[in-house]
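subagent[fold] <- orchestrator: predict structure for attached chain, return tokens only, no commentary.
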Amino acid sequence: MGRKQKLLRESTGHLRVVEQQAKYQAEFLAADGLDKLQPTPPAYLDRDAKAEYKRIFKGLGKLPIRDLDHAELENYCTWYSIYKQSTRDLQEERDPEAREGIIRTLDKATKNIKALASDLGLNVNSRLQINMPKDDKGEKQSLKERFG
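subagent[fold] -> orchestrator:
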């Protein structure tokens, strides 16, 4: 069993042109050789979750989300659906104890939505982090380093 592969930009040895091209091709295939995410939501999601899936799918654009990430996207949509339903329930509920339970559900849904949205690149900070250019050492540059 050999060593773990390094990215071409992280290789420290002197590689021949043929070896560089092979590494570059392997990196390209590994980065984008995966199946794309299906454009239609799974049938088992409820109405609100399906609507959110469709809304998000339009905006995914060039984010590196692939079919391997479908479970995380479906979790996000499910939690969003729970959030919407809990919001509706809270507006209708008058019993203080029942409202407290709904608020706990809203809090949990909000935290899960926030975490999953960050993982999927659905908020500004995570998109900036995904698209942040790397310096010669393979480390991400800060905005201050990049723009001065």
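orchestrator: received. Logging for downstream: The mean pLDDT is 79. Residues 63 and 70 are 14 Å apart (CA to CA).
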